[in-house]
Design brief:
By secondary structure, the protein is α/β, with parallel strands linked by helices. It is built from 16 helices and 14 strands.
């Protein structure tokens, strides 16, 4: 009963069970009111009789079930936090090994420190959650069928006039949404709850990054709602472009004095109708021209024509453009999902904390831990840098225990652009149909025209690297 959806389900179930009583009550109440309106007012004795009739009316059946449960969570100690750990310790004791108490305590602490206890708790909780969702699915299907039967029946006059039929349709739509979403959730949560450590990777998604990769067949449940909002936003912008602004945008001077100008057209509006100092009309016009509305320095190459968003200013990733954005964890996820034949990494401000070609051996520099993991797990990671400190980079990475295949120094090797290096290396993989991933913190490097043929052919994925905490 702690599920958010359970409250709506109980309300809908209460409505179904009370529908006949509510209809009869409303029919009796509205019938008497009509009689009172038709009859003329009499003496004081007649009014007393009417008061007595009102007092004899039956009490209104409950339309909503009173629920003790509230949305505010109360933090209490739950056995879920220790059940998994106790099961593991019981399994160890059942082996019959003559372990002293101190050894068992040490094992318990190791299981907690290594996250095993937390993993068991998550699995137990997820299984209980799936069990609750199965109950919700069955109940919602049953209630929706009952609501459908009520809707198919001809509504009485009182039911229609009092809005009872509208409430029935409201609850039916709510249950239809539950019936559509909960099975989709169970389709993916149930296999996840049974996954083992040696199982094949099933779901790749980051909590912080802009890139997320889902299994084949994973449906986009919010897509229809986004399309609906997008459709009405277009109508809104069309109306605004014709000068049909609402009163809240341009109130009278005595009503609102805090009006701000649009930095593009100069018209003044309230804050509600401005986004980053641009009015909605100017912002839409600039997007339709295929350029970033917020920064003139952003070229068209970094502007996504599919969603009309800027990869730099709006932290946007687009798989169709083959231009993603995220931190080292996201790069690791992309490599695991896309399985590129070669990974091309920038060095300064990407793999390492160095800047502007400085030597990594001077000062206290470090490497990104997630990118270092990519280097250690992938067989072909190549550094492509404009720095001339090639030997220092090799020595630095060796000291940090970061294996790489090769370092390409543009200044030392006679190249003029990173795209030339990547095109040459990708040509070596063309026979095998290999794909590449290019990671850099400079959008200009990623949108070099020399890379476009590889991007258009679907052989190169580009990744704008930003360190954790700098993406919002």
């Amino acid at each position: 009963e702690s599920l958010e959806v359970w409250k709506s389900l109980e309300r809908a179930r209460q409505f179904v069970s009370s529908h006949a009583e509510l209809d009869a009550y409303l029919a009796l109440r509205w019938g008497r009111r009509m009689q009172e309106k038709c009859s003329s007012k009499g003496a004081a004795g007649e009014e007393t009789a009417e008061d007595g009739a009102e007092a004899s009316m039956p009490s209104k059946p409950p339309a909503k079930k009173d629920l003790a449960w509230k949305s505010e969570r109360v933090l209490v100690q739950s056995p879920l936090s220790t059940d998994g750990l106790h099961e593991l310790l019981k399994a160890i004791k059942s082996t019959g090994l003559p372990l002293p108490g101190a050894a068992l305590r040490y094992i318990e602490l190791v299981l907690i420190a290594r996250g095993m206890s937390k993993a068991m708790t998550l699995r137990t909780t997820l299984r209980r959650y799936c069990f609750a969702l199965r109950q919700v699915r069955a109940s919602a299907e049953e209630v929706r069928a009952d609501l459908r039967n009520l809707l198919d029946c001809q509504p009485s006059e009182t039911s229609a006039s009092a809005g009872l039929h509208s409430f029935c349709e409201k609850y039916w739509r709510m249950m239809s949404g539950v019936v559509a979403v909960v099975p989709e959730m169970l389709q993916w949560l149930e296999p996840i709850s049974e996954l083992r450590g040696d199982a094949e990777r099933f779901f790749v998604s980051g909590a912080k990054g802009a890139a997320a990769f889902v299994p084949r067949g994973f449906s986009d449940l919010l897509q229809p709602y986004r399309a609906f909002a997008k459709e009405h936003r277009g109508r809104m912008l069309e109306a605004l472009s014709k000068g049909k602004w609402p009163k809240s945008a341009r109130p009278n001077a005595q009503e609102e004095i805090n009006l701000l100008p649009c930095r593009h057209c100069g018209e003044k509006y309230t804050r509600l109708w401005l986004h980053r100092e641009l009015c909605f009309v100017c912002e839409a016009r600039l997007r339709s021209e295929g350029r970033c509305p917020f920064n003139d320095k952003c070229g068209p190459a970094s502007f996504c024509p599919h969603e009309r968003l800027c990869a730099v200013c709006e932290q946007h990733s687009c798989e169709e453009c083959r231009l993603l954005r995220g931190d080292g964890e996201d790069v690791w996820q992309v490599v695991g999902h896309w399985q590129p034949a070669a990974v091309f990494l920038d060095f300064d401000r990407t793999l390492a904390t160095t800047k502007r070609g400085g030597s990594p051996l001077i000062g206290n520099h470090s490497v990104d831990p997630d990118l270092a993991t990519v280097c250690g797990s992938h067989g072909c990671v190549q550094i492509v840098t404009r720095s001339s400190r090639k030997e220092d980079i090799l020595q630095f990475l060796a000291q940090k225990g970061v294996p790489i295949s090769r370092v390409h120094s543009l200044k030392r090797d006679g190249w003029t652009s990173k795209s030339q290096v990547i095109v040459q290396e990708m040509a070596k993989l063309e026979a095998q149909g290999g794909r590449g991933l290019f990671v850099d913190d400079d959008i200009k490097e990623l949108t070099d025209p020399g890379l476009q043929p590889l991007v258009d052919a679907g052989r190169l994925q580009r990744f704008l690297f930003v360190r954790a905490g700098g993406k919002e």
